[in-house]
Design a protein that fits this description.
Elements lengths: L12 E3 L5 E5 L2 E5 L6 E5 L8 E3 L5 E5 L4 E5 L6 E5 L7 E6 L5 E5 L4 E5 L6 E5 L7 E6 L5 E5 L4 E5 L6 E5 L9 E7 L5 E6 L3 E5 L6 E5 L9 E6 L5 E5 L4 E5 L6 E5 L3
Antiparallel strand pairs: 1-2, 2-3, 3-4, 5-6, 6-7, 7-8, 9-10, 10-11, 11-12, 13-14, 14-15, 15-16, 17-18, 18-19, 19-20, 21-22, 22-23, 23-24
């Protein structure tokens, strides 16, 4: 299951191997006990944590875009180790554990996808075919590929973790100048679901035939900014959007959208 989250700098949250909820934040990594709500913070030597995920080696791995590093933190003793990304000012952002045992991450400032081995700590980088694509969110698809959004390129990309080959798919024509894609997640229906910022739609792409389907949200104001999307424990996809101060959900089987107003 996934979690919805939003904070000032970091926007990553995940379940650690210790059963705690780990999250990225300004200048630190935090964890909270789901049993009693106790929070403990671990300071990052320098920079901020953008995103965080549980690694196959029992550590938590995170991106530090400000310092151009990939970090890991031990859930046992809180020790933090960081590794510099080879490309200068690459801007590592979103990170996920790949099916091949490596950690894959987006490099939004240099249009690349990176991966790091938790065994050797070696980082390999792959160029996204489209220039100025701004790869943003990343997730593992049900087909064993790594899928990501191209925030400025208005495309969805996938990378084969074995060969490093990247394929891109254009989303439907934009409705206005700020029609850009953002967060992506694997749905319970075997498709990849993603939000379109200020486009008033939730999209899905099939890994079987690469078809893209769009579902309009109820709030039609282009001031609404869709942010994050994740699978909920009820089998629906849940998403956030800031302009309307609402939380939304969409049924993967019917495409029905429901929105809930939150406080101002």
């Amino acid at each position: 299951m996934g979690f919805l989250c939003y904070n000032s700098v970091g926007d990553g949250i995940c379940i650690g191997p210790d059963g705690k909820i780990w999250f990225s934040d300004v200048n630190q990594i935090g964890k909270i006990s789901p049993k009693n709500g106790n929070i403990k913070d671990y300071s990052i030597p320098d920079g901020d944590a953008n995103d965080i995920t549980a690694g196959p080696d029992g550590n938590l791995w995170f991106t530090n875009g400000y310092m151009n590093q990939i970090g890991k933190i031990s859930p046992i003793n809180g020790k933090i180790t960081e590794y510099p990304v080879p490309t200068k000012s690459a801007g590592p952002d979103s990170i996920t554990a790949g099916p091949d045992g490596n950690l894959c991450f987006t490099e939004e400032e240099c249009d690349q996808i990176g991966k790091i081995s938790p065994i050797t700590d070696i980082i390999t980088e792959y160029a996204v075919p489209s220039a100025y694509s701004d790869p943003c969110s990343i997730t593992v698809g049900p087909d064993g590929n790594i899928w990501f959004t191209e925030h400025e390129g208005n495309k969805i990309g996938k990378i084969d973790p074995t060969t490093g080959i990247i394929t891109e798919y254009s989303i439907p024509p934009p409705q206005n100048d700020t029609y850009v894609v953002d967060s992506i997640t694997a749905g319970p229906d075997g498709n990849l679901w993603f939000v379109v910022c200020q486009g008033n739609v939730i999209d899905k792409i099939s890994p079987d035939n690469d078809d893209i389907t769009e579902y309009p949200i109820l709030s039609s104001d282009f001031g609404n900014i869709l942010n994050e999307i994740t699978e909920g424990p009820d089998g629906n996809l849940w998403f956030t959007f800031g302009g309307a101060h609402q939380i939304g959900k969409i049924s993967p089987s019917t495409g029905t959208v429901t929105e809930y107003q939150v406080g101002y």
